[in-house]
Each structure stands twice: as C-alpha cells, then as structure tokens.
Write a structure and sequence with these properties.
The chain is an alpha+beta fold. The protein contains 5 helices and 8 strands; from the N terminus they run H-E-H-E-E-E-E-E-E-H-H-E-H. A 5-stranded antiparallel beta sheet has the order 3-2-7-1-8. It has a 3-stranded antiparallel beta sheet with strand order 4-5-6, with helices on one face.
Length: 235
C-alpha cells in the first residue's frame, strides 16, 4: 500500500514537471513569436524610411542639378548684359566723339590759342596785302592742329566743322559766311604741349607764317570752352 502511494507521488511530480515544461515552452514560443512580429514591423518601417530617404536624396540631386543649370544660365545672361552694356557705352562714347568732331556738341578742355595778326609795319599801300593774314595762313594752322590731335577748333569763337569753309573777302575772312577781322584767334582743344610743339617745329607752320610777315602768338590754356557749330553761327 505504501509502495503504491509512493508511485503516485512520483507520477504526480512527473506530471507537474511536464506541465511546467509545456507551459514554459508555450510562453517562450509565444514571446519569441511576438518579438519576431515586432522586429518584422520595425524592419518594414525602416525599409519604408530608407526608400523615402533615397527618393528624397534623388530629388535633392535633381533640384541641385537644376539649380546649377539655372545659375549657369543666369551667369550667361549677366555676361551678355554686361557685354551689351559695354557695347552701348562704347557706342555712346563714339557718338559723343563724333558729335564733338563735327561740332554738334559743346566741348570743354585744355588746349592752346594761336593769335594771327597783321604786320605792325607796312612799307607801302601797294604791298599791304603781303603783310596781312590771309585764309591760307589760317588753313595752315588749322591743318597742323588737326593732324596733331586737336579735338575741336574755333576761329574768333566760331566753331568750325568738317563742312566749314574759309575765304578771304578784302581785309577780312569769312568763316561759313560770317566775317571776321584780324587779329584771328584760333582756339584748339587738345594736349597743349603736343599742339604747341607741332606748330613750333623748326621750319614748320610758325616759321612759315613769320616769313610771310605774320605776327604769331601761341599760348597754352587750362580751359577752353567751345559752343556747337549751330550756336556759333548764330552769334
């Protein structure tokens, strides 16, 4: 009877152990499955996040390339505008220079004044014209000034242009129809040193005028103002 009772105790203990093992195995399996499910969801989220990140990076690269292209295009447009602005500025300067040379604009600058006067002593009335300033004398001075770089020239304040004419009319000369009597003051804007040196060259214009009994005076000026041709012609 005692033996049977002991067997029952052993059997009950074994059943208890088996039940505990089954219960532990079930709980372990359940916990592992739950963890695996959580890990799968996390991996799925990470995968989605990676896909989104890669897409965003691709979009950023595309936008960056587009930005670089637009910046290059803007730089080209700015260069074109700068070139056009420079070209327009150059054209404006050239136009202003042309207006100055043809006498259509008022000019101011340093230069020289050449005064041509009749001889102070005339031996006889028969030879009087040999001691007077004539248009050829004025022409010589103007020609020398032009080839020496004069930017603008006037005779007795009257601006001359590429269409001007000078003729003798008795004791006076006519400049574009306006009469002027001696002395004749020829004003020229330009480098004073260069212009004066060109006239004073030995055997040059000044010496030729002196040989023709013309009194020649040359003076440098810090500032000379010359009106346009159409203003001068209506003084």
């Amino acid at each position: 009877m005692a033996k049977r009772k002991g067997n029952r105790v052993i059997l009950a203990f074994i059943c208890f152990i088996l039940g505990f093992m089954l219960s532990f195995s079930y709980q372990y399996t359940k916990t592992k499955t739950a963890k695996r499910n959580i890990t799968d969801r996390q991996w799925q989220k990470e995968y989605e996040y990676r896909k989104q990140l890669i897409q965003i990076q691709k979009e950023n690269r595309r936008l960056k390339n587009e930005l670089v292209q637009k910046q290059n295009k803007v730089a080209e447009m700015e260069k074109t505008l700068a070139d056009e602005r420079t070209a327009y500025t150059d054209l404006a300067k050239q136009a202003e220079m042309l207006r100055m040379y043809v006498g259509e604009s008022k000019v101011k600058g340093q230069g020289i004044e050449i005064t041509l006067s009749d001889a102070s002593y005339i031996p006889s009335e028969q030879s009087a014209t040999d001691y007077m300033v004539h248009e050829q004398h004025v022409f010589k001075v103007i020609h020398e000034l032009l080839i020496s770089g004069a930017e603008a020239i006037a005779i007795n304040g009257q601006r001359i242009s590429h269409r001007s004419y000078i003729v003798c009319n008795g004791p006076v000369i006519e400049v574009d129809g306006t009469q002027h009597a001696a002395p004749f003051v020829i004003s020229a804007i330009g480098n004073p040193t260069v212009l004066a040196s060109a006239l004073n060259i030995p055997g040059g214009v000044k010496d030729l005028l002196v040989q023709d009994n013309i009194i020649v005076k040359i003076a440098s000026k810090d500032e000379i103002v010359l009106d346009p041709v159409f203003h001068a012609n209506h003084k």
